[in-house]
Design goal:
The chain folds into two domains: 149 residues, 3-Layer(aba) Sandwich (Rossmann fold), CATH 3.40.50; 58 residues. It is 45% helix and 12% strand. Strands 3-2-1-4-5-6 form a six-stranded parallel β-sheet. The longest helix is centred in the N-terminal third of the chain and has 15 residues. The radius of gyration is 17 Å and the shape is globular.
């Protein structure tokens, strides 16, 4: 039985990925003009992962980049992915618990709450980067999300748009719904049990059937 739905934030609840692509594109062109398209290579990675890989040689610059990112996030627009708010409300009407599981930090979430004060009421739990010691694709964040909601992983469905996020949900032993908002549908399909473009056409019955087919033998 489906008892809980866990959602990534950027690219799943809010349409922010193109804005982040612009930010990281500007940083990559500034620091690595000889590596065009680097922002595409780091797409879907956490800030820690970006620093450990692409920006590892720029230790002294990392705090400066972080400050620029924090300023950028204050001015971002946080528009809902089509249909997501109505879908979350449907889940609550059916008694299905909900959580945000995001690599975003507390300062970023403060910006979200200012833009959408209702978001805290839409979810039973909100887990941020400060709650985890491991980054996606490690399943820790989703396992902790299920624990926080008092459910088993096989009673959950996780919504993600990035490759690392999809791997995290899959490794946590949950049903996986991929959002084709950041990467093409055919690219995320191998890591997803179901792929959708947004929430407008997704029915609750589809999720219940998905969980049943995946876990009920």
């Amino acid at each position: 039985m489906l008892k809980a739905a866990l959602f990534d934030l950027d690219g799943v609840i809010f349409d922010t990925e193109t804005q982040y692509s612009r930010f990281w594109g500007s940083q990559c062109r500034h620091y690595f003009p000889d590596r065009p398209g680097l922002e595409k290579e780091i797409k879907g990675q956490t800030l820690v992962q970006i620093y450990e890989t692409a920006f590892a040689s720029l230790k002294d610059e990392q705090p400066i980049i972080t400050e620029r990112l924090n300023d950028f996030e204050k001015s971002m627009s946080y528009d809902y992915i089509p249909g997501v708010r109505n879908f979350i409300e449907q889940l609550h009407q059916k008694g299905i618990r909900t959580a945000i599981v995001t690599s975003s930090n507390v300062p970023k979430m403060a910006n979200v709450y200012r833009s959408h004060p209702e978001i805290e009421q839409l979810f039973d739990a909100i887990l941020t980067a400060e709650d985890f010691t491991e980054s996606k694709p490690h399943p820790q964040c989703y396992l902790l999300g299920a624990e926080r909601l008092g459910v088993k992983p096989q009673e959950c469905v996780g919504f993600e748009d990035s490759f690392n996020g999809l791997k995290a949900v899959k490794s946590a032993g949950m049903a996986v719904v991929g959002l084709a908002t950041t990467n093409p549908a055919d690219a995320i399909a191998p890591l997803s049990d179901l792929v959708v473009s947004d929430f407008q056409q997704l029915q609750l019955e589809d999720l219940e059937q998905l969980v049943h087919n995946k876990f009920v033998k």
